[in-house]
Amino acid sequence: MNNELEKLKVPAIGLIVVGFINAVIGFFVLLSGLARLAGVVEDTYSPVNDAERLGFYFSTFIGYGIAFLSLISAPFIIYGGFQMMKGKRKKLVKFAAILAMLPVTACCFIVGLPFGIWSLIVLSKPEIKAIFNNESMPINYNPPQPPQF
Q1: How many CB atoms lie within 10 A of CB 28?
Q2: pLDDT digits (tens, 9 = 90+) for 92-134
Q3: Between 109-123 and 2-38, two packed helices, what is the crossing angle to 10 degrees?
Q4: Is 34 left (phi over 0), alpha (psi -120 to 50) or beta?
Q5: pTM of the predicted model, to two decimals?
Q6: 109-123 vs 90-101: helix crossing angle, rounded to 10
């Protein structure tokens, strides 16, 4: 069973790292937006016409919205990674892997995409399903022999 848990370790660590990166990026993007709104940082761009102004406000809103969703989804991704390492809560782990892959919920979905896909592939294997279902897998090896004196 430890061998199967080892298969979960690397994709789980990847999900945890992706969650932390999403949290940090989301936090700093929102912090910069708050600094801009408070007037701490001077806004150097001024749209020339109404179309540019609409595009600027729309892209700003979308950017801060994704940063907010990224900050909100990061704890789920991190918690899902920790649960994956333990071999528990399969539905939550799948949800975390999908969140890591979505561009709307993850600032660094380019890093999250391979780890999310890897996690879903590993979770679909029968021996891994058995771990999450708390079934005992048949042992295919003989235990080591005690030393002879």
Answers
A1: 13
A2: 988 988 888 888 777 677 888 888 888 888 888 887 777 777 7
A3: 150
A4: alpha
A5: 0.74
A6: 150
